[in-house]
Write a structure and sequence with these properties.
InterPro entries: 4-PPantetheinyl_Trfase_dom (IPR008278), 4-PPantetheinyl_Trfase_dom_sf (IPR037143), ACPS (IPR002582), Ppantetheine-prot_Trfase_dom (IPR004568). Helix content is about 40%, strand content about 30%. It is an alpha+beta fold. The chain has a three-stranded antiparallel β-sheet. A hairpin with a 5-residue loop joins β2 and β3. α1 crosses α4. The longest helix has 19 residues. The protein starts with a strand and ends in a 13-residue tail after the last strand.
Length: about 140
């Protein structure tokens, strides 16, 4: 298995809180799936939880090399948690199709947040022969 792409994103929690305040369900419906909304909605600080998932979706789109758009939309990426607490990604629709086209078979995800920021790192792995971008050889 090789690394096909990597992505990282950082989000200001206040930016997500502002979007929640201004746009409410319209924002949530556009960006988050029902399971994500149920999970974050019961947290003491939902905006931190949403910010981490927003950052995760951006990081996954960067690892794919597509950004958010026609090949990978907000609702194509779902962030879930294992019983251990480890986050993982489930792809839907065009996201799943794009992963297959790119040879991506696994996505590793790490999330972290503080009062003011949330950060996510995504590693896309598979069997297509390696990363798309130029990389220096290891010595």
């Amino acid at each position: 298995m090789t690394i096909i792409g990597t992505g990282v994103d950082i989000v200001e929690t206040a930016r997500i809180a502002s979007s929640l305040e201004r746009h409410g369900d319209r924002f949530l419906d556009r960006v988050f799936l029902e399971g994500e909304r149920a999970y974050c909605g019961k947290m003491a600080s939902p905006s931190q939880c949403y910010a981490a998932r927003f950052a995760a979706k951006e990081a996954v789109s960067k690892a794919f090399g597509t950004g958010i758009g026609a090949m990978l939309g907000w609702l194509d990426i779902e962030v879930r948690r294992k019983a251990s607490g480890e986050p993982f990604v489930v792809l839907h629709g065009e996201g799943a199709k794009t992963a297959t086209r790119l040879g991506i078979t696994e996505i590793r995800l790490s999330l972290s947040h503080s009062e003011h920021y949330a950060v996510a790192h995504a590693l896309a792995m598979g069997f297509n022969g390696g990363m798309r971008s130029c990389a220096l050889p290891l010595l």
